[in-house]
Amino acid sequence: MYSKCGDVGSARQVFDEMSERDVFSWNSMMSGYVWNGLPHKAVEVLGVMKKDGCGCEPDVVTWNTVMDAYCRMGQCCEASRVFGEIEDPNVISWTILISGYAGVGRHDVSLGIFRQMVNVGMVSPDVDALSGVLVSCRHLGALASGKEIHGYGLKIMCGDVFYRSAGAALLMLYAGWGRLDCADNVFWRMDKSDVVTWNAMIFGLVDVGLVDLALDCFREMQGRGVGIDGRTISSILPVCDLRCGKEIHAYVRKCNFSGVIPVYNALIHMYSIRGCIAYAYSVFSTMVARDLVSWNTIIGGFGTHGLGQTALELLQEMSGSGVRPDLVTFSCALSACSHSGLVNEGIELFYRMTKDFSMTPAREHFSCVVDMLARAGRLEDAFHFINQMPQEPNNHVWGALLAACQEHQNISVGKLAAEKLISLEPHEAGHYVTLSNIYSRAGRWDDAARVRKMMDGHGLLKPSGHSLVGTGS
After folding, report:
1. Nearest CA-CA partner of 71 in 46, 100, 95
2. Is the sign of the CA dihedral 364, 365, 368, 370 positive or negative?
3. In a domain, 468, yes or no
4. Pick the residue with more confidence: 276 or 213?
5. Keyword Glycosyltransferase, does the record have it (predicted)?
6. What is the 3-state secondary structure (H, E, C) of the chain?
């Protein structure tokens, strides 16, 4: 009772005060921890059970609970190890493993486990297992496997049951990979009064870039009187124009979605990408509660609009709000500095990542600083900064520097950047073209000719839209 009400502390107190415990007691305590987002505690309870459980042996429910705990912590290898200890795994055991690997992005393993389950033949997959593996098929682009599972599902259970539970995953698979004929076929076999059906279709259409069809689907959903939920709005807003977005915003206010944070995050994003940063900030200001995505979206929005100082002020406000910045936050803030010419502030922020937040900057953060320095014409500083990167600089980093060298006509750094790029991508003609243009505009025709000769040696043709001859500008 306590666990289901979220009071896991009281549940543990009752558990500790029990003079005798059976396997049901142990399982209930472990499940309580898992339900309340404390999977590591569930694993700890299993250790205690094994050590002094007074003769209680774990049963399949115990093992399933522990597997679920490991999967929620992203430790699917440990979950697999536990699975190997189950004498007779049931359908829940298999499903936990299938969904667990899918949840950490190992969709190939998820599909493999499903095939193993079918081949072993001891238990038949249920709708949860089918839904889980269909999600993996979508991420893998495994249409053939998805169709095979579609047919298998209809073979082992009646169509209504299958489509009611696994239809959404199947719909997103087909729509997401452009098989609208198959998606439409599934769609008309699903319950049209269920918001999940419409959400799956809209998400699939948006995912494949069929914006007009997604909006048509959204309007038909409204016309049929199907209750729109937060997932519907969050899926459709990113592809709405400003007029449509404002209409949905009005609907959100009318239907009181004030506590649904993803909806407001989607509104902030929509207004930001449509050029209405004031509207975006107005939505942000009215939010009852904000999560990490809320802060990242508004900071990124101000940065994109060249309002870097405001973005930095919001980052400061975020730090005082109790929401801890992540790597995405710093990418947004550094990009804001770059677009606003706040070079010193951006460099200081970069070093604060390690000093104040104990974060290790990723390649994208180094790229932001390089772009920032390059935009400001500090090309030598950018070059030296790149050489200090702990990771191997990629083509994007060197490409940003080379482009800046062309803009600022810096031949010495441009030559070095081009050499690095050519060593990484020797058959990319654009790198040679940029370097040749730098030489040509400086009147260094012999060097430009040497670059052309290098291109000829690699059998590269000049891309359309570029010139190997200086324009004089």
Report:
1. 100
2. negative
3. yes
4. 276
5. no
6. CCCCCCCHHHHHHHHHHCCCCCHHHHHHHHHHHHHCCCHHHHHHHHHHHHHHCCCCCCCHHHHHHHHHHHHHCCCHHHHHHHHHHCCCCCHHHHHHHHHHHHHCCCHHHHHHHHHHHHHHCCCCCCHHHHHHHHHHHHHHCCHHHHHHHHHHHHHHCCHHHHHHHHHHHHHHHHHHCCCHHHHHHHHCCCCCCCHHHHHHHHHHHHHCCCHHHHHHHHHHHHHCCCCCCHHHHHHHHHHCCHHHHHHHHHHHHHCCCCCCHHHHHHHHHHHHHCCCHHHHHHHHHHCCCCCHHHHHHHHHHHHHCCCHHHHHHHHHHHHHHCCCCCHHHHHHHHHHHHHHCCHHHHHHHHHHHHHCCCCCCCHHHHHHHHHHHHHCCCHHHHHHHHHCCCCCCCHHHHHHHHHHHHHHCCHHHHHHHHHHHHHHCCCCHHHHHHHHHHHHHCCCHHHHHHHHHHHHHHCCCCCCCCCCCCCCC
The total domain count for the chain is 1
Q: What is the pLDDT of residue 24?
A: 63
- What range defines the domain where residue 449 resides? 381-473
Residue type, 445: W
- For position 262, what pLDDT does the model report? 93
Tell me the one-letter amino acid at 38.
L
pLDDT > 70? residue 446: yes
Per-residue model confidence (pLDDT) at position 443: 83
The 10s digit of each residue's pLDDT in 382-435 is 999 998 888 888 888 888 888 888 888 888 888 888 888 888 888 888 888 888
Are 186 and 168 spatial neighbours (Cβ–Cβ below 8 Å)?
A: no
**Count of Cβ atoms closer than 10 Å to residue 167 Cβ:** 26
Higher pLDDT, 5 or 261: 261
Question: Can you give the pLDDT at residue 272?
Answer: 96
Is 20 inside any structural domain?
A: no
In a domain, 5, yes or no: no
Q: State pTM to two decimals.
A: 0.68
Q: How far apart are CA 331 and CA 184, in angstroms?
A: 40
Q: What is the pLDDT of residues 56-77, one digit of tens each?
A: 666 788 778 888 888 887 888 8
470: confidence class by pLDDT, cuts 50, 70, 90:
very low
- Given this model, what pLDDT does residue 18 score? 60
Task: Flag whether 24 is in a domain.
Answer: no
